[in-house]
Amino acid sequence: MQSHRSGARVNQETGIAAVFDFGALVAPAGRASTASGLLRRRGSLETVLRDGLRGAPTDGSHRRFLQRVSRTLAGRPAAEVAAAGEHLFRGGGYGHLYPEAWQLVRTHATQGHTVILTTSLTRAQVAPYAAALGIETVLCTELAEEDGILTGYVAGKTPWRTGKSEAVRAHAERGGLDLSRSYAYSASATDLPLLAEVGHPGVVNPDPTLSAHAAEQQWPVLRFAPRRAPTAADAARTVLGLFGLLAGSLFGVLRTAHTRDRRRMADALMVHGTRWALTLLGVRVRISDATKALSPRPAVFLFNHQSQFDVIVVPHVLVGGVTGIGKKELTRNPIFGPLLRFVGVTFIDRSDTARAKAALEPVAATLRGGLSLAVAPEGTRSYTPEPGPFKKGAFHIAIQAGVPIIPVVIRNAGEIARRNSMIARPGTVDVAILDPIDVGDWDPNDLDARVAAVRELFVATLLDWPKPRDPAAASTA
Fold first, then answer.
1. Rounded CA separation 223/84 (Å)
2. In the record, what terms sit under GO molecular function (predicted)?
3. In which order are the strands placed within the sheet that holds 372-375?
């Protein structure tokens, strides 16, 4: 399939569906998939929702699951069950999403295909995953309710075996979708009726029965690797890396202290601290074109944010002459807080819009004084490789200061450390620095479309990663 790059022509193939079974998108969840205190206090509710996520069901396990749903959820408010599913996802379930699945889903969506998630699980279990992947259409087991209270019964037919293919067929008829030109992906042989409905079936990490059938039918087989949980060795390496961050930062400051130049000391802190940390963490940073980080300056560097370790990767890539904006909560971090304060980061209270805007007013003056700014415009870390919605603060600052915006696209940061994890795993982080964007003629009162276009540059780059223009220009650490 053709993926999207900014400025490239994309064939919009309307009337085509891309149907994903839940098991093709998400690795089976383990028992440690939740960390929510709220859900621990609601053991039976947590258990019934979580257990359904642990692998491809059989006829027997699916029947028992429906019985448990009826027994456990009857009489509960639907909103409470939906909130429990959201807590499961945010508490660790998001870590089981295959990054390759996000790319496949997004590529189909970019082609204009109608993306559908289908599963025999309940909406409370899968809705957070669908939302994170940008999938609007979910065909699942719907639970009957009266006045917002679950009755314990299933509303309609359960999407299981032929029920799943029937649900997809009915939706296709209502939406004018041509299944003969459509795609479907599954990991289980129980979905053979669904795969037979479409013109382009595919299998992802198939079970033995489905694998044999796919080989016989010459269906494409995709292999997505489950991401392993951090180990004790990873934890020890992370402690060593954070020690290296502190030691390298101190080395950089002491090495330049004789200059009495705070900016020079801050730059040395970032250069040596991040280099030592990444080396000890076993993290390699591969930059597509490192020269773009150096010119033009000053500039507002925008980076997508998926890992807590982005605050190490970004200053390493930009090599000094830069400060940032951080959320107020970072001041309480015993390691990053003092370091960020020393390099002049502006901290904002996102809960108070007026104070946040006031705190940003001096930043434009900082840029006009020659110091660049690195900002994560999402404002928070994303659950998938796809950047979340961009806030407009950094764009307003660039316009006020009269400096360009430079996108810094980070790939695989979530492979190093999951969104909420403070433990890093060794690996490679790719960074692509895109061409500067002149904001001189932008109207501050009409930013929505401009901001959306910049965000789409990030998505396009993640889907179609650029090759180094000159292999010699690629940088590693």
1. 31
2. 1-acylglycerol-3-phosphate O-acyltransferase activity; hydrolase activity
3. 346-348, 322-327, 372-375, 300-303, 405-411, 427-433, 283-287, 475-476
Per the structure, the count of domains in the chain is 2
Please give the biggest Cα pair distance in the chain: 76
Span 364-387, average pLDDT: 91
Question: With 80 as the cut, is the pLDDT of residue 107 above it?
Answer: yes
123 and 272 fall within a common domain = no
In a domain, 2, yes or no: no
Domain-embedded: residue 3: no
- Looking at residue 38, its pLDDT comes to 36
8 A C-beta contact, residue 278 and residue 460: no
**Which amino acid is residue 427, in one-letter code?**
G
Which pair of tokens denotes residue 209? 């029965």
Q: Which amino acid is at 16?
A: I
Q: What is the CA radius of gyration of the chain?
A: 24
Q: How far apart, in Å, are the Cα atoms of 178 and each of 16, 198, 200?
A: 6, 9, 11
Question: On the CB side of 397, how many CA atoms lie within 13 Å of its CA?
Answer: 32
- Using CA atoms, how far residue 317 sits from 88, 260, 311, in Å, is 35, 25, 11
* Structure tokens, 414: 């979530």
pTM of the predicted protein model? 0.86
- The reply to whether 210 and 237 lie within a common domain is no
Q: Are residues 215 and 239 in the same domain?
A: no
Question: Six-digit token pair at 124?
Answer: 């409370």
Per-residue pLDDT of 383-404, as tens digits, reads: 999 999 999 989 999 999 999 9
Mean pLDDT (whole number) for 278-288: 96
Are 407 and 376 spatial neighbours (Cβ–Cβ below 8 Å)?
no
Ranges of beta strands (E only) in 149-220 are 149-155, 183-186, 200-204
pLDDT of residue 169: 97
Six token digits for residue 185: 């992906």
Which residue range forms the structural domain that includes residue 295? 232-476
pLDDT value for 36: 38
402 domain-assigned: yes
Backbone dihedral region of 33: left (phi > 0), alpha (psi from -120 to 50 degrees) or beta? alpha
Strand residues in 105-238 grouped as ranges (E) = 114-122, 137-146, 149-155, 183-186, 200-204, 221-222
Q: Give me the pLDDT at residue 332, please.
A: 80
Taking each helix axis from N to C end, the angle separating 123-133 and 99-110, rounded to the nearest 10 degrees, works out to 70
| Pair (285, 364) in one structural domain | yes
Last residue of one domain, picked from the residues 169, 203, 222? 222
pLDDT for 412-441, tens place per residue? 999 899 888 899 999 999 999 999 999 999
